[in-house]
Amino acid sequence: MYIAMNRFKVLPGAEAEFEALWLNRDSKLGDVPGFVEFHMLRGPAREGHTLYSSHTIWQSLAAFQAWTKSEAFRAAHGSAGGTRPLYEGHPEIEGFEVIQTIGAAD
């Protein structure tokens, strides 16, 4: 498995608008080969921003890379930055290969 995360530093007062963009988008991830799960996470409010992270789980690094090169990816990200600035800087992407998973029944 592979986990891809983006970290966003959302500007004070822009949290509701940022969340609405994510909650109301037309996600096509469920149709993407190798996609497992998506989470949008709200973190702590800090001085100057609130931390958010998108978190996707993929069957493999290859599946994630194929998604980033697909037409579906371009369509999903085509309007990014189309609204007023909601976060500072660019999202910070981090990727991780899973080396261990422990479930509740384990």
List the main descriptive attributes of the protein structure presented here:
106 residues, alpha+beta, Alpha-Beta Plaits, 4-stranded antiparallel beta sheet, 4 strands, 23% helix, globular, monooxygenase activity, monooxygenase, oxidoreductase, Antibiotic biosynthesis monooxygenase
Report on this model:
The chain is an alpha+beta fold and 106 residues long. It has one domain (2-97): Alpha-Beta Plaits (2-Layer Sandwich), CATH 3.30.70. It contains three helices and four strands. Strands 2-3-1-4 form a four-stranded antiparallel sheet. A hairpin with a 2-residue loop joins strand 2 and strand 3 (49-58). The two termini are 18 Å apart.
Radius of gyration (Å): 15 Å
- General shape: globular
CATH class: Alpha Beta
CATH topology type: Alpha-Beta Plaits
Brief summary of the model shown:
This protein has helices at residues 15-23, 61-68, 71-77, and strands at residues 2-10, 35-46, 49-58, 87-97. It has 106 residues and is an alpha+beta fold.
What is the topological layout?
Blueprint: E1 2-10, H1 15-23, E2 35-46, E3 49-58, H2 61-68, H3 71-77, E4 87-97
Antiparallel strand pairs: 1-3, 1-4, 2-3
